[in-house]
């Protein structure tokens, strides 16, 4: 076991152990101050990377005479106006373009990507146990999500209340699958940290 | 001008959904019909939440999660939670029960403060409104969760309401509430956090049930109208699935072609 | 009775740490058998003809890198060995510098030529909207690579201007697969290989079954299997034994807690 | 001017980008290409505003010495140091690289690793089979936990097979149901945003 000589490895070992101390000592000052440092660096990195993008995607094209880019730049700068009292309504224009643009792009393909494609994928020949189970399970889950009286009263009249309960049970299997796999994800991040401490730092 | 092949059916479905949504929202805005939603376990438990807190004299804690109101994906969920908060604050004002809410973003803090104060005004007791009912903790997920847990432990809360937009912090909040023996109701559309909420809380509003509960409690006509439109969309899906599957079983691919038109 | 089945938190923390550290120091060497998902992704790339183009999107933060970076490195080593032309970008600002180091460890290490075999496009703002804009023109979205050189001057962009010109997408995401499916697969049928953090594995199975995604590699287990397939065991394989024991401990804790719960309920019923 | 025009703008942009996907109509398609490229630039400015917003949250706290102002002081100093070295001396500069590899990388990874501890403590204290549903959830979770890791197949070769079946049949059909129903919710919410029926993104009262 020979401890690493690299100062950066020492610094990250210190940061790792300070944050891990939170688990055993809830308001440990190490955790509080190291976390503040990390949040500061994270915000700083965002500004640095954002600035290099502004140079590449805004300033250089403008200098090369591509003036059509002035429109989005103008809208982007309007976002800064939000901090001038009385003028913050001006910032609504870039927000409108961003929110509506995102919604429009999402809407354009959501129906095909999720609604239509997944219904097509649900059209299975009912000739095997798995396919029949998937067919009934899918109908039950969709029926479970009937919420308003207009549909649920019809379900009660047709004595189909049990379909909603079946839908809820099938959903529990899906949530169980996600729950089980989440544990793997959380553990792998902690194991990654221990690997760093044991191999890179302590050289085991 | 012509339609792009392969996307025509989706376009028709989108138009049908849009027309239904707009018409139903307009009609619900005019009609006096009460918001009629199927029985939701989480909704009925809200009475129990207020009752338990009033009997024991211990406060109710509400927390909308780390999600911000501005972003499209989390905004609707936080606003659904705020509608539940509106009902809660009215009940707390009526029964003089203490209500504490903790927040991770200045905007959700500001809106919650307005919602709770409004609840006290409607109950005719504006003077009973207390600052503790809306507290901004931190925008960092872990610091926000631990701050809320410390308040829950210090105040020894009777009930814990976690309806909004959550990340991994909901595990911390729900576990703390559980170890305090508080009655807990949760609600989120985030399928990755729902498993934890269902296992740790007594009652859970699953996915769109959250919006339905919010619409009932605050008589939100727009949400009610769009929920009806969504239900009709589900009927379209069920019809396509049943007819399509039967036809595919007998080797007829007409519905599959229709969907890929 | 209460504290036997409801131990102090620190007891469970020590137990978890112990069970993870022991196999990291001396591994148990339990065999890693690749699952269908990993084979789907691996075989798809194996059947690509050399010189096909691939675009990599890093859509996870530094916090998830322990779970997803092993998969990125394993896949990039495979793509370099197959001689694929690689376009690499990230929509998370803090990952721009990390992306450069991942390319150095894989494509540069396999002495591929920058600008001809691979290009580092760095960070782009706008998430799904930007992927939508790349459908029109990648050059217009980025304009220059990380080093500031104009994209039109790079040989790799000779016959590639927009996203549909690229053969395959490799999206490594911790936030969601739908934005990539909507803007690339639905719009112009681009095949996508996903690597997602473990929590999103089960939720994305329908997209593999519907053919909208080639495969969805799941977290660090997928990475360990991929490392085994390319014959270069790395950090993910080394972590698998610790994963196994950690999972066993958590399962035992759940069972133990529930035994206490049922005994308590049983005792309460008889009072 | 303050409310109606932004709503009209959002209607035009939203509808335009949506229709562009379905309709081949030259003026609409070319306009949509440029609007999409605008989104990238505006989004770039909005993340810069969000990052600088941190200054507005923490600097008043430092000036007023209120609450955890010492932590805010540490945060702001590291933020400004990172910005200064990164912008003026380049990202290859030693100080910037030390902050990146020595603080940001371990910091964000370790904060995320804490969740493994909380799952372990919650496992014994709160994950109880209270009802039929939570027991079904827990049983499926335990099966998936075993089948996801190598020890599962070591215990018995049926575990991975059963795990795969649960993932590809009951789980897949339930997730498909969730996808179909959530896409309907997404459509109605996005429509209400574009058509100006819900305007919480406008913010403010006037």
Task: Describe the structure in brief.
Chain B: This is DUF6754 domain-containing protein. Chain C has helices at residues 2-5, 9-25, 36-46, 65-81, 96-108, 127-134, 138-142, 178-188, 205-209, 219-229, 235-270, and strands at residues 53-59, 85-90, 118-123, 168-173, 192-196, 215-218.
Order of helices and strands of chain D: HEHHHHHH
- The shape of chain A, in one word, is extended
Tell me how many strands of chain A there are.
Answer: 0
Write down the secondary-structure element order of chain A: HHHHHHH
- Uncertain spans of chain A: none
Mean pLDDT of chain D: 87
Number of strands of chain D: 1
This entry's quaternary arrangement is heterotetramer
Biggest β-sheet of chain D, characterized?
none
End-to-end gap of chain A:
5 Å
InterPro entries (chain B): DUF6754
Keywords (chain B): Membrane, Transmembrane, Transmembrane helix
Pfam families (chain B): DUF6754
Organism (chain B): bioreactor metagenome
List keywords for this structure.
heterotetramer; A: 204 residues; mainly alpha; 7 helices; B: 261 residues; alpha/beta; Rossmann fold; 2 domains; six-stranded parallel sheet; 10 helices
Overview of this protein structure:
Chain B: Pfam families: DUF6754. Chain B: Keywords: Membrane, Transmembrane, Transmembrane helix. Chain B: This is DUF6754 domain-containing protein. The complex is a heterotetramer of chains A (about 200), B (about 260), C (about 270) and D (about 210). Chain A has 7 helices and no strands. Chain A has about 200 residues and is mainly alpha-helical. Chain A starts with 6 loop residues before the first helix and ends with a helix. The longest helix of chain C has about 35 residues. By secondary structure, chain C is α/β, with parallel strands linked by helices. Chain D folds into 2 domains: about 90 residues, no CATH class; about 80 residues. Chain D contains 7 helices and 1 strand, in the order H-E-H-H-H-H-H-H. Chains in contact: A-B, A-C, A-D, B-D, C-D. The interface between C and D is large, with 64 and 55 residues. Strand 1 of chain B pairs antiparallel with strand 1 of chain D, so a sheet runs across the interface.
């Amino acid at each position: 076991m020979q401890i690493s000589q690299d100062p950066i490895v020492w610094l990250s070992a210190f940061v790792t152990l300070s944050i891990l101390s939170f688990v055993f000592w809830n308001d440990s000052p190490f955790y509080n101050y190291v976390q503040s440092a990390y949040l500061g660096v994270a915000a700083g990195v965002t500004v640095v990377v954002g600035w290099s993008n502004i140079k590449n995607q805004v300033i250089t094209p403008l200098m090369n005479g591509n003036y059509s880019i002035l429109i989005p730049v103008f809208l982007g700068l309007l976002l800064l106006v939000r901090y001038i009292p009385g003028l913050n309504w001006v910032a609504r224009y870039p927000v409108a373009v961003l929110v509506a643009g995102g919604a429009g792009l999402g809407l354009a393909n959501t129906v095909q990507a999720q609604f239509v494609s997944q219904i097509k994928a649900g059209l299975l020949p009912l000739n095997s146990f798995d396919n029949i189970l998937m067919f009934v399970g899918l109908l039950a889950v969709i029926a479970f999500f009937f919420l308003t009286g207009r549909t649920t009263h019809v379900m009660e009249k047709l004595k189909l209340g049990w379909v909603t309960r079946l839908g809820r049970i099938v959903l529990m299997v899906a949530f169980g699958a996600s729950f089980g796999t989440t544990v793997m994800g959380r553990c792998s991040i902690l194991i990654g940290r221990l690997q760093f401490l044991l191999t890179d730092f302590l050289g085991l | 001008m012509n339609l792009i092949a392969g996307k025509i059916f989706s376009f028709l479905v989108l138009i049908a959904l849009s027309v239904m949504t707009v018409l139903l929202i307009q009609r619900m805005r005019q009609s006096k019909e009460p918001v009629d939603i199927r029985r939701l376990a989480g909704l009925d438990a809200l009475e129990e939440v207020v009752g338990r807190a009033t009997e024991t004299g211990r406060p109710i804690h509400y927390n909308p999660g780390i999600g911000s109101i501005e972003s499209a994906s989390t905004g609707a969920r936080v606003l659904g939670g705020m509608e539940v908060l509106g009902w809660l604050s009215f009940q707390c004002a009526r029964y003089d029960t203490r209500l504490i809410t903790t927040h991770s973003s200045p905007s959700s803090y500001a809106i919650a403060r307005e919602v709770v104060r409004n609840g006290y005004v409607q109950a005719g007791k504006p003077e009973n409104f207390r600052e503790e009912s809306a507290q901004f903790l931190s925008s960092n997920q872990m610091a926000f969760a631990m701050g809320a847990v410390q308040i829950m432990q210090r105040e020894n809360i009777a009930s814990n309401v976690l309806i909004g937009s959550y990340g991994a912090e909901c595990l911390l909040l729900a576990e703390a509430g559980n170890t305090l023996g508080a009655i807990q109701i949760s609600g989120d559309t985030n399928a990755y956090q729902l498993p934890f909420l269902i296992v740790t809380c007594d009652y859970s509003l699953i996915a769109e049930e959250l919006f339905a509960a919010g619409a009932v409690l605050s008589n939100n006509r727009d949400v009610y109208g769009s929920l009806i439109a969504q239900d009709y969309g589900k009927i379209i899906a069920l019809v396509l699935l049943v007819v399509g599957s039967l036809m595919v079983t007998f080797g007829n691919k007409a519905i599959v072609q229709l969907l890929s038109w | 009775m209460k504290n036997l089945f409801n131990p102090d938190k620190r007891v469970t923390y020590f137990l978890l740490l112990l069970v993870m550290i022991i196999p990291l120091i001396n591994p148990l060497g339990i065999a890693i058998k690749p699952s269908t998902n990993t084979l789907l992704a691996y075989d798809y790339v194996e059947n690509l003809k050399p010189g096909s183009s691939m675009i990599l999107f890093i859509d996870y933060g530094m916090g998830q890198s322990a779970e997803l970076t092993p998969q990125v490195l394993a896949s990039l080593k495979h793509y370099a060995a197959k001689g694929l032309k690689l376009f690499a970008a990230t929509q998370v600002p803090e990952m721009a510098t990390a992306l450069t180091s991942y390319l150095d460890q894989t494509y540069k290490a396999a002495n591929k030529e920058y600008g001809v075999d691979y290009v580092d496009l760095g960070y782009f703002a706008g998430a799904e909207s930007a992927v939508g804009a790349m459908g029109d023109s990648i050059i217009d979205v980025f304009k220059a690579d990380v080093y500031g050189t104009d994209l039109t001057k790079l040989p790799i962009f000779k016959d590639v201007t927009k996203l549909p010109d690229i053969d395959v997408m490799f999206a490594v995401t911790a936030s969601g697969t739908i934005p990539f499916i909507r803007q690339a697969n639905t719009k112009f049928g681009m095949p996508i290989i996903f690597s997602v953090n473990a929590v999103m594995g089960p939720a994305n199975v329908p997209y593999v079954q519907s053919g909208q995604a080639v495969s969805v590699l799941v977290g660090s287990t997928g990475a360990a299997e991929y490392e085994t397939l390319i014959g270069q065991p790395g950090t993910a394989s080394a972590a698998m034994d610790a994963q196994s024991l950690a999972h066993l401990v958590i399962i035992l804790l759940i069972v133990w807690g529930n035994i206490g719960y049922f005994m308590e309920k049983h005792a309460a019923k008889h009072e | 001017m303050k409310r109606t025009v932004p709503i009209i703008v959002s209607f035009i942009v939203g509808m335009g980008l949506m229709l562009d996907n379905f309709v081949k109509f030259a003026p609409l398609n070319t306009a949509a290409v440029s609007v999409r490229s605008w989104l990238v630039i505006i989004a770039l400015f909005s993340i810069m505003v969000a990052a600088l917003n941190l200054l507005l949250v923490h600097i008043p706290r430092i000036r007023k010495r209120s609450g955890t102002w010492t932590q805010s002081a540490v945060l702001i100093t590291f933020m400004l140091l990172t910005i200064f070295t990164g912008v003026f001396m380049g990202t290859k500069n030693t100080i910037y690289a030390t902050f990146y590899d020595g603080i940001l990388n371990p910091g964000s990874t370790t904060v995320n690793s804490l969740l493994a501890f909380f799952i372990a403590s919650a496992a014994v204290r709160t994950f109880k089979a209270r009802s039929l549903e939570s027991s079904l959830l827990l049983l499926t979770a335990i099966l998936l936990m075993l089948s996801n890791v190598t020890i599962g197949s070591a215990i018995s070769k049926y575990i991975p097979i059963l795990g795969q079946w649960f993932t590809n049949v009951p789980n897949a059909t339930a997730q498909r149901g969730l996808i179909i129903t959530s896409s309907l919710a997404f459509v109605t919410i996005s429509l209400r945003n574009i058509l100006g029926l819900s305007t919480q993104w406008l913010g403010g009262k006037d």
